[in-house]
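Q: Hi! First time doing this. I have a protein sequence and I read that you can turn it into a structure. Is that right? Here it is:
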Amino acid sequence: RAAHRGRMQRPSKVWFVMEDLMPERQVYFDNNATTPLHPAVKKTLVEAMDLYGNPSSLHAAGRLARNAVEEVRERVAEFIGATPDEVIFAGSGSEANNTVLSIPTCPSKGCDCVMHESTEIVTSVIEHPCILETAKCLGERGVSIRYIGVDQYGRVDPEELRRSITERTRLVSIMMANNEVGTIQEIKKLAAIAHERGALFHTDAVQAVGKVPVNVQELGVDFLTLSGHKIYGPKGVGALYIRKGAPFCPLIRGGHQEKGRRAGTENTLGIIGLGKAIELRKEEMEEEEKRLRAMKAALRQGIEEKIPDVHFNGHPTESLPGTLNVSFDGAEGEALLLYLDLEGIAVSTGSACASGSLEPSHVLLAIGCPVERAHGSIRISLGRENTMADVERMLEVLPKVVERVRRMSTAYGR
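A: Yes, that's right. Below is the predicted 3D structure, encoded as structure tokens:
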């Protein structure tokens, strides 16, 4: 993929050594971890680099920056069915998620949230680490955290959620689409149950927004998070939807930005990039979803036909269009990843945020996947730059790689 390689920068001398080792053809199948910048987003970022003013300044340079930020706020709001004053910008989806989980436990006087001595938060066992680690931290500080399980496809049972919510529950947080197996939750139904029981509802929609239709009014959620770099925009920028009238307490303090809801000078350039990415998602998402589902189906069929003893993880139909998680009996996922990388194919063994861990995926274990099988899984996540030729290349290389890794495992008695 010469065109793709041509877009990659060379930040240091180390890169020249790395490039010499890289195969001629590159296939990027790790779009759930991050997506390459859309060419139009890149062009917009370059054009906006001279927009240096502080959006809080009253002079002309500041007003230009403020206008740009507010235009993007309107664009994001329209895309998810919100109003502009219900959207604030953050440094990432993780920051936005942390912000929401801190709301029901805020101890500060004068905030529009209420501190309860017996606060309880309900979440699922397959959430992103930025939810699970924050919940763990809050639990260590005395907040009651209730975790609910999922079925073999990674779906939360609405009735189990209903039974899990108590009079102490202030917030329910369930992700809309899982980053590892792609399963999409019944968020509208889950949010309604939370509200029936008197709890607020948050959904981490970082993997869903821009890939499938998302409308906060239809879903009935109180909070929703999204991120720029999952939709071909820049890293370091995300957004949080806060339903009008919902309680809120800032996580980051010290300034009046975002109407006092998130201190810190706005990342104007990143926000502009997010806005362009949202604009392009509005234009391209529907057609791209169809194309990705066709490639995913071809990939799944080819793997089934060419490789024995495989298991697909996640819901077979209610899932993200470009996410395919597959386990190979008798093969280590890390070894598969490395050998595929040597062939110029980039995949993942799970969440990029946990890639340094040797532990099996918490998501795969939660859906009942045996430990050995969980260790033998890879995540293939397709994006807008992928073509059917990439799928064919994968189906040419993957069977050989799996066979090689399985032979090695047998030889070493694993």
